[in-house]
């Protein structure tokens, strides 16, 4: 590990600026089925997804029906491999498996269906007309993680080796055109040496219902409308705010309802959820946690298409409100005493605007969020404090699919406001993201999180072969406020503050190599270095490295 750290330091002094990773494009866009012949033709856009998601194992291309979407036709909101619809990326397989629609297999020739053995499980006719049918899905994921200094040496473990196995299977029942039900079951196993965080309910999980929804849908007022109730993952939010928590064995799910309506160039999503309680580690024991609530509305408008540098361009303007209600460790804030925290509960009202899409060969993404609300201390006699925080996130990537390696080069910048822990009476100025922003977004190791943070760095991605993808990101980090603490993932507030000099925190070069070596299979390697400033090292923070290897099978 000394050799690894020494090598990473050499990157820092020399070619670090070229070791860039994590583009805004999803590599799963290699196969883009066109519009199904059974559906209304979708608007064609060259838009590459700006949602940074892990590579999805691809189905057998030879077994896919030519022209099939494998998800409902959202017309112009099919952009970004369906991500613009608010239901996550779908590229044959989806982030949310219930967002898939395999009905195109009903009319597929037997020669095509037989090309992939699993096609017989994707469309199972249950009546003569085919109006009632079922689709099955499954995932087996084996993941190994090595960290020599977890949480910058503050996790209480060194040289941690974790082995995670996720078994996840689902069944999607369609009862005609207007009703469908989906159930997904999960069993998670975790082991290793010098492990940590295994008793939080996000790594080890006895057999339980991971997702279970009932959807009623149809056309009304010229829109595709629907209501989805039950336990589900939620992806209709900026990745800097919300993710399915796919780094761990157990994804983050919510219990509640969402209603959506999609017109030709405008859509709206209304939702109200309580977080699923994963701590009861017994068979079918998961319930609802009333300590965390997510609610709000998300709208997206497709702006008029235009030409730029000879390329068709499409931008989307999203306006949203996300409400957070939560307590516990994640809601705590630093006190004036070094290392101290004040417990309480908080309401965070996030009002935001996102402008994203493609301008010619440039994929762009700009998000601005104002966060209001209040913090209520647990201890009686202490005053309720207002919240006044903000975040600005942006990225731009120039892509050349006509060049060898189909490269994309760009830059990503982020600002999450900080406050002052010396001011215990004024407004709380530290931006909060309690519900697990996408770990691939900025820091895979979770040693830093999206609070009191400035990050900027180059990004790049390459398609070396149709099944071999490389992406890199090198973010440099600072504290947004030197009068505020340094924050890590999972509600961690580091005790360094008064003795920490300067705002520069460090740099974390990250590289991911993913190989879809066979249909349904993906083998991914993630490497990240944690290179800290002298000020951070002087107060006790430790540099390190993370290596993660993932072998995933999906059908």
UniProtKB/TrEMBL annotation:
Residues 133-528 form the Alginate export domain. The keyword Signal applies. Pfam families: Alginate_exp. Keywords: Signal. Residues 1-28 form the signal peptide. It comes from the Bacteria. This is Alginate export family protein. It comes from Acetobacter lambici.
């Amino acid at each position: 590990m000394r050799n690894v750290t020494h090598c990473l330091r050499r990157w820092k002094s020399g070619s670090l600026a070229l070791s860039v990773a994590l583009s805004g494009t999803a590599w799963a866009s290699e196969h883009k089925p066109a519009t199904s012949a059974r559906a209304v033709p979708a608007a064609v856009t060259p838009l590459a997804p700006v949602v940074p998601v892990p590579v999805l194992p691809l189905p057998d291309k030879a077994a896919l029906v030519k022209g099939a979407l494998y998800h409902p036709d959202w017309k112009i909101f099919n952009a970004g491999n369906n991500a613009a619809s608010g239901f996550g990326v779908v590229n044959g397989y989806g982030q949310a498996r219930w967002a898939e629609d395999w009905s195109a297999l009903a009319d597929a020739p037997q020669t095509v269906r037989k090309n992939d053995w699993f096609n017989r499980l994707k469309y199972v006719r249950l009546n003569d007309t085919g109006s009632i049918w079922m689709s099955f899905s499954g995932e087996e994921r084996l993941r190994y993680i090595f960290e020599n200094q977890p949480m910058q040496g503050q996790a209480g473990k060194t040289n941690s080796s974790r082995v995670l196995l996720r078994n996840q299977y689902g069944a999607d029942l369609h009862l005609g055109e207007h009703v469908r039900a989906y159930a997904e079951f999960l069993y998670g196993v975790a082991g290793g040496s010098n492990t940590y965080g295994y008793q939080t309910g996000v790594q080890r999980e006895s057999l339980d219902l991971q997702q279970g929804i009932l959807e009623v849908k149809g056309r009304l007022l010229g829109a595709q409308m629907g209501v989805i109730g039950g336990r589900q993952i939620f992806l209709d939010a900026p990745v800097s705010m919300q993710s399915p928590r796919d780094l761990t064995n157990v994804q983050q799910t919510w219990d509640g309802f969402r209603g959506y309506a999609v017109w030709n160039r405008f859509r709206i999503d209304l939702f109200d959820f309580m977080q699923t309680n994963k701590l009861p580690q017994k068979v079918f024991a998961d319930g609802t946690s009333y300590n965390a609530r997510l609610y709000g509305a998300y709208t997206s408008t497709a702006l008029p298409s235009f030409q730029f540098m000879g390329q068709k361009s499409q931008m989307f303007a999203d306006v949203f409100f996300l409400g957070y209600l939560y307590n516990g460790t994640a809601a705590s804030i630093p006190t004036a005493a070094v290392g101290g925290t004040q417990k309480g509960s908080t309401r965070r009202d996030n009002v935001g605007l996102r402008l994203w899409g493609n301008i010619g060969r440039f994929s762009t993404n700009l998000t601005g969020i104002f966060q209001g609300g209040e913090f209520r201390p647990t201890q009686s006699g202490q005053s309720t404090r207002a919240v006044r925080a903000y975040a600005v996130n942006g990225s731009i990537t120039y892509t050349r699919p006509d060049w060898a390696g189909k490269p994309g080069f760009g830059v990503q910048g982020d600002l999450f406001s900080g406050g002052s822990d010396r001011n215990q009476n004024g407004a709380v100025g530290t931006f909060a993201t309690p519900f697990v922003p996408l770990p691939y977004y900025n820091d895979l190791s979770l040693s830093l999180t999206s609070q009191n943070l400035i990050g900027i760095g180059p990004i790049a991605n390459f398609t070396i072969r149709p099944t071999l993808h490389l992406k890199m990101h090198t973010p440099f980090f600072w504290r947004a406020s030197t009068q505020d603490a340094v924050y890590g993932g999972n509600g961690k507030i580091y005790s360094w503050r008064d003795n920490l000099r300067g705002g520069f925190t460090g740099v974390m070069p990250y590289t991911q190599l993913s190989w879809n070596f066979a249909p349904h299979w993906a083998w991914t390697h993630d490497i990240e270095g944690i290179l800290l400033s002298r000020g951070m090292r002087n107060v006790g923070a430790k540099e390190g490295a993370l290596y993660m290897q993932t072998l995933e099978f999906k059908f």
